[in-house]
């Protein structure tokens, strides 16, 4: 059984009765290796066919659906049809030509990809797989179609009629009607990477940006990426099927939560821009960590959505609220921690006194919800426009780095989030290789013990690897942090020589002293780097090695990550579980390569040091002595 994207329950309200009946038949009559989309914009021109079908062996099929009755059609030829709309005559394009136009937009885009076309022979430059297009008339029988002479306007094999999609029609007969719409049956079975490339080209919104660069579909000369990463089908199904109301996604690190949040924000913003009846209020994305907010803001800016999608870290948003509505700011000379607490309280009181209005945003999307105190969640929930009631909260309690005094009885309902029955759990980690995830789990094993709760609580989730293989993390054991810093600098330089951009690299440190040591080593080696110590310092997209604390790295990812000083964790007097959370977050920022400094007498160093006793690991670290000379 095939699954429609978006889910039928999420799009049934905007379907005609015929479209809904066809969607049900497609799900019932097609096997589960068919991919099926309804009313999703496709290709560079973002055209909207009614249905898109994709099968690794059969190919690509575009369907237009018409709920016309026979008496609706006044005249028909191969170019145009005269129909009655509300009793008035109207000329429309032949529905088959409409389907072909959508198909050609996609085919032309797919044929630009050398990995999707015939390399030689008489079909050189043409797609490796078949493609076709057709029309479904949901209120016209085959006899009516033939008797009315409509075959002069559309060939019989390009049409499915109402009686050919009855529930009693067997699956084989129904499928044969679909595949009769293909002019040719040549081609090869598409591999999974080729299917991903097709989805990458057809659906720009499901692309996973690995460098922050946005591919320009409008430039016909632009070189297509050699590797195309897209949301997996579960992520795409979830992203496209999210409706209004309060929604919660519990997802492990690397499960694509932030990617889904970004898709949702873009979708809501574009809906508002294209609809005269949609809300004119902006969408608000809230994060706890400032670098993640900066990163998401840069993505929205690149898409031209800055005016309709506001991205803030929580305390910046609180300050903006106080300034915008004429409220007094905390005393400038207060200690920073006290100032942040006071600022939040001033916003809460302002809302209670109605000096700061509620309902300011058509939607509120909260990333890193596990780091929001209950009173913060209660506050921002009130900022959603009641007319849309659109709230999305992303959670992973295993990544909670800040003690927010949530009681064990905490529930979403207690802070005004009506999430029961509308929660989704994502357990698969796509970001990290198996080797990186296993290393992170060595320290965080107790932390990642699955904790089942009802859908109004916050369960702890054990991540499941997607199975992506990679190189083993490199363990660096040297006598001092200074020597570790120089060894890491040399390893990063070597990674750059292998083809990694400087901007693909990050050094995540447990404290500022370690950051200073690493910055000094990079400076001595003359490697470009950027140190993030305060708000506003993070520069996403810059071609330099990013140095920051482990805490503020949460929500980000880099192909190459170095973690100096892990051998000294947990620090004396530090809670081991909290240190494990910090390490887990930092280690899971790496998508391909991870380096860990395990020198020192901390418990994590000993635990990882035992794992690192392979000759290859020690040979690598001995070759780079960590000397500054």
Please give the oligomerization state of what you see.
single chain
Q: Which sheet architecture does the biggest sheet show?
A: 6 strands, mixed
Query: Span from first to last CA?
Result: 64 Å
Gyration radius, rounded: 28 Å
- What is the residue-averaged pLDDT? 86
Query: Structural class, from secondary structure content?
Result: alpha/beta
Shape: globular
The tally of strands reads 23
Show unreliable segments.
454-458, 612-625
Key attributes of the depicted protein:
629 residues, alpha/beta, 6-stranded mixed beta sheet, 18 helices, 23 strands, 17% strand, globular
Task: Spell out the blueprint of helices and strands.
Elements: E1 4-5, H1 8-11, H2 17-29, E2 35-38, E3 51-55, E4 59-66, E5 73-76, E6 80-85, E7 88-93, H3 95-110, E8 131-137, H4 142-147, E9 159-160, H5 171-179, H6 192-202, H7 233-241, E10 245-251, H8 257-274, E11 283-287, H9 290-302, E12 309-313, H10 314-324, H11 336-352, E13 363-366, H12 374-381, E14 390-395, E15 423-426, E16 428-429, H13 434-444, E17 464-465, E18 474-476, H14 481-497, E19 505-509, H15 512-524, E20 529-531, E21 545-549, E22 558-563, H16 576-587, E23 590-597, H17 603-611, H18 615-623
Parallel strand pairs: 1-2, 4-8, 8-9, 10-14, 10-15, 11-12, 11-13, 13-14, 16-17, 18-23, 19-21, 19-22, 20-21, 22-23
Antiparallel strand pairs: 2-3, 3-4, 5-6, 6-7
Helix pairs in contact: 7-8, 10-11, 13-16, 14-15
């Amino acid at each position: 059984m095939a699954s429609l994207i978006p889910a039928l329950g999420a799009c049934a309200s905007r379907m005609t009765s015929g479209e809904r009946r066809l969607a049900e038949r497609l799900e019932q009559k097609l096997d589960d290796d068919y991919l099926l989309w309804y009313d999703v914009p496709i290709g560079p021109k973002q055209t909207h066919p009614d249905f898109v079908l994709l099968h690794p062996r059969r190919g690509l099929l575009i369907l237009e659906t018409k709920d016309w009755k026979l008496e609706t059609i006044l005249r028909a030829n191969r170019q145009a049809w005269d129909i009655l709309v509300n009793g008035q005559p109207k000329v429309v394009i032949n529905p088959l030509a409409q389907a072909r136009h959508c198909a050609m937009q996609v085919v032309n885009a797919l044929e630009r990809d050398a990995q999707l076309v015939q390399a030689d022979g008489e079909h050189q430059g043409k797609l490796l797989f078949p493609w076709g297009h057709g029309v479904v008339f949901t209120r016209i029988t085959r006899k009516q179609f033939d008797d009315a002479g409509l075959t002069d306007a559309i060939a019989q094999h390009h049409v499915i009629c109402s009686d050919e999609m009855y529930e009693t029609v067997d699956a084989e007969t129904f499928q044969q009607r679909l595949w009769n719409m293909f002019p040719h049956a040549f081609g090869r079975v598409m591999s999974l990477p080729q299917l991903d490339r097709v989805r990458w080209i057809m659906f720009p919104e499901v692309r996973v940006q690995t460098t922050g660069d946005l591919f320009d579909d409008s430039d016909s000369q632009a070189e297509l990426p050699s590797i195309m990463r897209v949301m997996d089908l579960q992520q795409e199904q979830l992203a496209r099927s999210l409706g209004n109301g309060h929604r919660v996604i519990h997802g492990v690190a690397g499960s694509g939560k932030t990617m889904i949040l970004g898709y949702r924000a873009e979708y809501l913003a574009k809906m508002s821009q294209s609809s005269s009846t949609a809300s004119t209020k902006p969408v608000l994305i809230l994060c706890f960590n400032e670098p993640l907010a900066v990163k998401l803001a840069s993505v929205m800016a690149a898409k031209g959505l800055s005016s309709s999608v506001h991205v803030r870290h929580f305390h910046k948003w609180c300050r903006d609220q106080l300034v915008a509505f004429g409220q007094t700011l905390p005393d400038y000379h207060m200690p920073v921690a006290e100032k942040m607490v006071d600022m939040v309280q001033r916003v809460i009181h302002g809302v209670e006194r109605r000096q700061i209005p509620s309902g300011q945003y058509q939607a509120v999307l909260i990333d890193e919800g596990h780091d929001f105190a209950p009173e913060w969640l209660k506050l921002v929930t009130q900022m959603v426009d009641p007319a849309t009631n659109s709230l999305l909260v992303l959670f992973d309690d295993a990544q909670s780095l800040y003690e927010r005094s949530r009681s064990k009885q905490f529930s979403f309902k207690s802070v005004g989030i009506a999430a029961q029955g509308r929660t989704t759990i994502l357990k698969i980690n796509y970001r990290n290789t198996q080797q990186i995830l296993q290393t992170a789990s060595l320290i965080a094993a107790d932390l990642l013990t699955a904790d089942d709760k009802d859908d109004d609580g916050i369960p702890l989730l054990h991540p499941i690897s997607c199975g992506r293989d990679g190189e083993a993390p490199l363990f660096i054991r040297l006598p001092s942090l200074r020597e570790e810093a120089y060894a890491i600098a040399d390893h990063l330089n070597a990674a750059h020589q292998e083809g990694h951009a400087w901007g693909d690299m990050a050094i995540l440190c447990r404290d500022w002293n370690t950051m200073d040591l690493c910055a000094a080593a990079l400076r001595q080696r003359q490697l470009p780097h950027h140190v993030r110590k305060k708000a506003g310092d993070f520069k996403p997209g810059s071609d330099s090695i990013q140095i920051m604390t482990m805490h503020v790295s949460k929500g980000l990812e880099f192909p190459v990550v170095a973690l100096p000083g892990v051998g000294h964790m947990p620090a004396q007097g530090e809670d081991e579980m909290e240190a494990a959370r910090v390490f887990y977050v930092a280690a899971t920022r790496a998508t391909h390569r991870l380096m860990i400094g395990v020198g020192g007498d901390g418990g994590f160093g000993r635990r990882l040091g035992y794992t690192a006793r392979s000759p290859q690991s020690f040979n690598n670290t001995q070759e780079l002595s960590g000397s500054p000379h």
